[in-house]
């Protein structure tokens, strides 16, 4: 059975959705860069190994990422899942996990990269918004797209109401995407798109 390591920085609702989906893989560890990440307690209740590696105290991004690689690799994962892991990753980190590192981003990429994606969508006046699961490349919020889900933007939406509508979809497409990966159904084509074989 394939092993998956999940990285979080906060509440970890996407990680919880992955665990609750009972996917055909082993969640080998949940790792956070913040010791107060809410998701750690949930993982512990499910007897999933947890670890914390704070980025504070490291002299550089590269130094932290090198230590993170050591920690992650101690679990020998086939797949590393970023689930609200709020760190920009160094090129070395991304290259180390090439084609086995995925992320969920709360927008319909390539629109609205970076932070505050729901406010970005409201400000742009788009009528459809959503979320994307993608393989991670060295460019921020970029890389072959595995799955997307769209939601309507309603006239009275606030950042919070829109975030909540999108999050419901995140909890569907992330477990689905991980399932496809661990079942070897994803192929990254030469043109940088993803083919899903069913
Ligand atoms: C999710 O909405 C995820 O898409 C977003 O952070 C939230 C984490 O929630 N990720 C990013 O913005 C990455 N750039 P969670 O901790 O409850 O899963």
From TrEMBL:
Residues involved in N(1)-(5-phospho-beta-D-ribosyl)glycinamide binding: 12-14
Enzyme Commission number: 2.1.2.2
Listed Pfam families: Formyl_trans_N (PF00551)
Pathway membership: Purine metabolism; IMP biosynthesis via de novo pathway; N(2)-formyl-N(1)-(5-phospho-D-ribosyl)glycinamide from N(1)-(5-phospho-D-ribosyl)glycinamide (10-formyl THF route): step 1/1
GO molecular function, one term: phosphoribosylglycinamide formyltransferase activity
Family annotation (HAMAP family): PurN
Site feature Raises pKa of active site His, where: 141
Protein name per the record: Phosphoribosylglycinamide formyltransferase
Swiss-Prot/TrEMBL catalytic activity: N(1)-(5-phospho-beta-D-ribosyl)glycinamide + (6R)-10-formyltetrahydrofolate = N(2)-formyl-N(1)-(5-phospho-beta-D-ribosyl)glycinamide + (6S)-5,6,7,8-tetrahydrofolate + H(+)
UniProtKB keywords: Purine biosynthesis, Transferase
Function statement: Catalyzes the transfer of a formyl group from 10-formyltetrahydrofolate to 5-phospho-ribosyl-glycinamide (GAR), producing 5-phospho-ribosyl-N-formylglycinamide (FGAR) and tetrahydrofolate.
Source organism (scientific name): Leeia speluncae
Alphabetized Gene3D superfamilies for the sequence: Formyl transferase, N-terminal domain (3.40.50.170)
